[in-house]
Structure formats: C-alpha cells, structure tokens
Amino acid sequence: MEVQTHERIDTALCGRVTALGHGTSRVEMTAPAQMAVDDHGLVHGGFIFGLADHAAMVAVNHPNVVLGAAEVKFLKPVRIGDTVVAEAGAVQVEGKRHIVPVTVRRGEETVFEGRFTCFVLARHVLDSDKT
What we know:
Structural class: alpha+beta
Distance between the termini: 32 Å
Strand content: 35-45%
C-alpha cells in the first residue's frame, strides 16, 4: 500500500510513516533540538499533536483528507532525543467523516491519546469552487 496524502510533509517535524495498512498507520519520530521549549529539553506539545495528526491522515490515506476536530490528552512529557511512535487504527467511517483513534508511545509508555475526526472531501480544500 502506498501513502496517498500529505506527500510533502516535513518528516523531521511530523514523523515518517513506518507502516501502513487498510485504515491503520504507524508514524515514528525522534524529537530534534528545534522542538525544545526550554533548557530542560521539553518538546512542545504541538509537535506531538502534529505527529498524531499525521498518523490519522495517513490511516485515512486519501489525497483530500482534512482534519475537522480532535479530542486529545497529553499524558507524559516528551524530551529532545526521545523516539515516539504514533499508531492510528480502526478507522470508523461514517460517510465522508472518518473517526481515527491515535496513541503515541515512547517505548511501552503512552504519552498521548487522541480521537481525530477527519473528512474526505470531493476536491482539495484549497481548490476553487468554480465548476
């Protein structure tokens, strides 16, 4: 199976796809120094969200998928140099709406959980409405 969405995403900031199945994905990232918010090496939560969002988009795997909503929990801090893995799976399809659960782990430890509501549009979100 081939990735059909987000083909130009910066994998250093949003992770690289390491597994892809029908309605599932696995995206891995080692947090680089530019993600630090302080001298302790704490990674900004937005980058972890971005990793999880990337996993959700790839699990849906459609060129016109967009994020509509997300319910998330940040459970543990992530530090520079940590390798985190986002696993998205069991996409629930309700018409054009896709509900995607995502878990981010550092080793066996869960650091983030989310439920992403994605929509598959008839055309790219930035395409003109002209017919």
